[in-house]
Write a structure and sequence with these properties.
Layout: H1 13-18, H2 26-37, H3 41-51, H4 56-70, H5 79-98, H6 113-119, H7 125-136, H8 162-169, E1 177-179, E2 183-184, H9 194-202, E3 212-218, E4 223-230, E5 237-243, H10 250-263, E6 271-275, H11 286-299, H12 305-317, H13 321-336, H14 382-400, H15 407-432, H16 442-463, H17 470-509
Parallel strand pairs: 1-3, 2-3, 5-6
Antiparallel strand pairs: 3-4, 4-5
């Protein structure tokens, strides 16, 4: 899928064996995350396989990859592009699998981190739009400027949507800062000041302005951040309007003045309009700046809000144009992590990356395989690891056949595993021979078609006889799943080797 040179996994053999079970240790996942951050392509491949799972481990693996893709986790230079391409390759596999009713690819058929990463790399405008529609179907907007029209969720020059913005900021509440739902400054029909209406209602509560209040406001074609707070030095109520472009229109400023006056900002000098003019390299990025600065204010409540805003503006304006453009891309991606209707914010045990230097970690190639008589010694390559795991499955499969009522199914599984073993051995020998394997080659088509036949057979067995009880079906599917993972790993190894062959061919031709 993405490997253009084979590199060792950071896992020892016991941790590697865990990957084909339901019990993956926290240490193993943490090692994979740290290794992926450093650019280990095998670890990225493994995380993509795990990310397809719908359980806690799958969700954490997906988030590790998304955080690297979005820049939330700083990794090796270019890691986002590697993950983009890997996601796209996986998406194409999912499209093929969907035709066969394969349920293991569900995350790529619905809004998810995997689909978002894949969509960002789709070359087809039609495909991007179809994927984008899955994310945007439930979004609401405050103005016509928020509509997607011909753009999609990956456009880096569109106005952020109301729901996107609120999803990104709604969890920034704390004991010192309150985040309000984004609203329009005026009603569309009668031009009544919506902000004044909301403040009038809030002022009836006994705890109004016990904490800083932040309001993302849509002025009709532009997001700004309005804030109210009590000055710690003199106790006066003060306010600000952060605007990432040039000065606002006078009628817009008047509405803010009116709302601030209603809230107790009685002196014009206590309402500060900040016109930052920061969008040259962040086109239509007003919503991006509102979200980022809401985050800055919520994490630095001990500072005067105006100091926080001005410090950010000074720092940002000191960046070169390239860094500002990267900020635009990464911030939009990071915001979208909160729009994905899945589990990430509810993960019970977040991954903590190991801070131990790589030289002190136990790498796969540095450990010896247990001398169990039924296990073949591996050749240390990722493909060799796959072949060893298939062999292990075959040995264990003889015991499966003894289970009452499952013999016919397990006999088919065992035969499929043996076919997979022969194919894996043949492919491994081909790789060791030093020969190239480009996608147009007949040998590539042989391996590709053979793996697809294995998928078909496994999916047919996975469908199960409807006469089986639900418990029996679950038991059978539990036995099938390791082979599905191994067949997918074989296909990924084929794509990896083919991609490397194409790269080598281009280098020689050049």
């Amino acid at each position: 899928m993405i490997v253009n040179e084979f590199s060792y996994s950071p896992l020892d053999i016991n941790q590697f064996d865990e990957l084909f079970s339901n019990n993956i240790s926290r240490e193993a996942l943490s090692l994979l995350g740290q290794s992926a951050t450093e650019g280990n392509l095998d670890s990225i491949d493994i995380l993509f396989n795990l990310a397809l799972r719908s359980d806690d481990i799958g969700n954490q693996s997906e988030k590790i990859l998304f955080d690297l893709f979005s820049g939330e986790t700083k990794g090796k230079k270019g890691i986002d592009k590697v993950i983009q391409q890997a996601s796209l390759n996986l998406y194409y596999t999912a499209i093929k699998a969907k035709e066969k009713n394969n349920i293991d690819m569900e995350k790529l058929y619905s809004p998810s981190g995997l689909l978002y990463m894949a969509g960002s790399a789709m070359p087809s405008k039609i495909q991007r739009q179809e994927a984008s529609d899955l994310f945007t179907s439930v979004f609401s907007s405050q103005s016509s400027d928020e509509q997607f029209d011909e753009s999609d969720v990956w456009c880096s020059n569109r106005m952020i949507n109301t729901d996107e913005l609120y999803a990104a900021i709604k969890n920034m509440h704390n004991d010192d800062v309150s985040i309000n739902f984004p609203i329009s400054l005026s009603h569309a029909v009668d031009n009544i000041n919506s902000l004044s209406e909301q403040l009038a209602e809030m002022m009836t509560t006994p705890h109004f302005l016990d904490k800083t209040e932040l309001f993302p406001i849509n002025t009709g074609e532009h997001w700004v951040l309005f804030g109210l707070y009590k000055d710690k030095s003199d106790g006066n109520i003060k306010g600000f309007v952060f605007n990432s472009t040039i000065e606002l229109r006078e009628d817009v400023k008047e509405k803010f003045n009116s709302a601030a006056d209603l809230a107790g900002v009685y002196s014009e000098k206590n309402l500060t309009f900040i016109n930052a003019n920061m969008q040259e390299n962040v086109p239509n990025g007003c919503g991006v700046f509102v979200a980022v600065l809401a985050g800055c204010l919520s994490t630095q409540p001990q500072l005067d809000p105006l100091d926080v805003l001005m410090n950010f503006i000074k720092e940002f304006n000191g960046w070169p144009a390239y860094d500002q453009a990267i900020f635009n891309i990464e911030s939009r991606r990071q915001m979208y992590a909160y729009c994905i209707p899945v589990r990430w914010n509810n993960i019970e045990r977040p991954v903590v990356y190991s801070t131990e230097p790589p030289s002190k970690r136990s790498y796969h190639g540095a450990s010896s395989r247990p001398q169990d008589p039924h296990i073949k010694m591996q050749d240390e390559s990722p493909l060799g690891q796959i072949v060893v795991e298939i062999s292990d499955y075959i040995d264990a499969g003889h015991n499966l056949i003894l289970q009452d009522g499952f013999a016919p199914y397990h006999e088919r599984l065992l035969q499929t595993a043996k076919d997979m073993m022969h194919l894996g051995d043949a492919f491994n020998e081909y790789v060791k021979s030093g020969a190239q394997l480009k996608q147009g080659d007949s040998k590539y088509h042989y391996f590709d078609n053979s793996i697809e036949e294995l998928f078909d057979e496994l999916n047919e067995i996975y469908s199960c006889d409807p006469s089986l009880t639900q418990e029996q079906q679950n038991r059978l599917r539990h036995d099938i799943r390791p082979l599905i993972n191994l067949s997918r790993a074989l296909w990924m190894a084929l794509e990896d080797f083919s991609a490397q062959s194409e790269t080598d061919h281009r280098k020689l031709s050049g």
